[in-house]
């Protein structure tokens, strides 16, 4: 049997720097097809009526669509956005620009793919199901941690599953990293989304899929997370470094996988709508058995910043509901294999997962 090495795409162009958002107009200009082919800006609605919204470089028939990040992206939401854009314009857009956290970045990726690929976005959840190149799409994170700005996936909640559209066409064609855009994030959200990055590092660095490629990015991201959450950086340095930690964390899992916290967090997200960042934290705190050092450091960071995680999330659930969460989690086979090796089923049983969920 021939060994298969992944040949994965990277973001071909990236702008980095405080204040670089003001360069967006120049960055987009060469990508404008003609005056009837707009740029569509999908923007987190926390920015409605803010200075940032006024700085978006609209020309011709460009449009801003404000979208709430209250709930994580859904396939029906992607489909509706694609229909709206197709109905309002005769020509395909020049590009889609996502401005926000992982939610908006993932929406932008999915909409760009579905503008050129027929049918519902739910038909493309999985690995390498996308047939045609997407339209040009740009990612501009306003909160750091998910690594969605570099990854080749867009995670969507569909009718049957919460799963990414993993494809070579998912990756952004351009990313703009302006650390100043993260200024308004609340302390809690800063912690939860930043811990997504930290957990990417721990899961990648302790996994069986680890290799020198992933390790080099994972170690860098982990060092940056430690500086940000345990050091005494200025606010400006901290914003810069967390943005680069997110990038490196995303690069680390590109050539490996995430692990136990992510598998179980998907179950919480699917059943209860618990969001990715906080869901990872809720699970990770109870994973000493799998990640002893990682959890100890996590608790240290949590205490330093006075973060209190909610409790009792799973206390009222029925057996059927536990079963649903466990099924979703156990379906994430590559994550378990990475965490525990080929024989992961020896350790991970429905009873084991239920006992962890019951602590949350
Ligand atoms: P998010 O996008 O939901 O944002 C979290 C909260 O922060 C929201 O309330 C949002 O409005 C607010 N916010 C964002 N920027 C702000 C700013 N500058 N000022 C004030 N408030 C701001 O959360 P997230 O943690 O960034 O992303 C989670 C999503 O990312 C999930 O849907 C998850 O599935 C996805 N994800 C994707 C990947 C990937 O590789 N594609 C990886 C990890 C997570
Ligand atoms: Zn994650």
Defining traits:
360 residues; 9 strands; Rossmann fold; 13 helices; 11% strand; binds zinc ion; binds nicotinamide-adenine-dinucleotide; globular; alpha/beta; Dehydroquinate synthase-like, alpha domain; six-stranded parallel beta sheet
Query: What's the number of domains?
Result: 2
Ligands: nicotinamide-adenine-dinucleotide, zinc ion
Mean pLDDT: 97
Cα Rg = 20 Å
Could you state the order of secondary-structure elements as H and E? EHEHEHEHEEEEEHHHHHHHHH
- Indicate the low-confidence ranges by residue numbers: none
Sheet with the most strands, sense and barrel status = 6 strands, parallel
Describe the structure.
This protein is an alpha/beta fold. It has 2 domains: 14-182, Rossmann fold, CATH 3.40.50.1970; 187-359, Dehydroquinate synthase-like, alpha domain (Up-down Bundle). Helices cover 44% and strands 11% of the residues. The protein has 13 helices and 9 strands. It has helices spanning 24-28, 51-54, 75-88, 102-114, 187-205, 212-230, 235-254, 260-272, 276-284, 292-304, 319-330, 333-340, 350-359; strands at 14-16, 39-44, 63-67, 95-100, 126-127, 137-141, 153-157, 162-166, 174-177. The strands form 2 sheets. The protein has a 6-stranded parallel β-sheet, with helices on one face. A 3-stranded mixed β-sheet has the order 5-8-7. Helix 2 links the parallel strand 2 (39-44) and strand 3 (63-67). Helix 8 packs across helix 11 (319-330). The termini are far apart. The model has no long low-confidence stretch (mean pLDDT 97). Bound molecules: nicotinamide-adenine-dinucleotide and zinc ion (ZN). Nicotinamide-adenine-dinucleotide (NAD) is lined by residues 44, 46, 69, 72-73, 100-104, 106, 142-143, 145-148, 151, 153-155, 181-182, 184-185, 189, 193, 196, 275-277.
